[in-house]
Amino acid sequence: MKRHGTAFPRPLRKVAAAVTATTAAAAMTLTLAPSAAAATYQYDCRRLAGVGTYSSPLALGNVTGRTVVAVNCPPLTSGAGYANRYFSFTLTRSARVRSYAGASFVLNRTQKSAVNPSLARGPYAIMHTSAGLWTYDRGGVFNGRYLPLAPLPGGGVLPAGTYRLNTQKLDSPLRSLSTPGFNVVVAAP
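The chain above was modelled as a monomer; its predicted structure follows.
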């Protein structure tokens, strides 16, 4: 697979503008801008089928024609087996423009590490976190990172199939021991 840099065509920059994160009370709520025809489904991350490992990812199900949000995902922490959490989702048709997958989060003084997504199908990496688009809050602080599913950074779109979204903590423990809790979002209008 061709390695992709972080320079994106204009339509992909607009995807990042469509995703914003806000806090309401003590819980994170994600505000999305899916197409009017797309439905939004919200699930508690802790109640999804699967355990969040590579071989047993948390199942988001069919995301075609909808936005699926898994809320209240526990922080990712430094240490063996805890710096990654895997999710699976299925597209029954190719992704359309403005489709994306990633995570929203709110950084704080003790949880300074972002949640970084990557995408795979079977044993093959499709997109590394370096292809992700950052979103920011009004103060310029990172609050999300998303991978475009259509158009892909190297051209084309993500075809129908089942995919594995890896959310990961990449910062060293010296910077922060964990990410904040986060929401996973897959939008395929």
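The chain has one helix and 13 strands.
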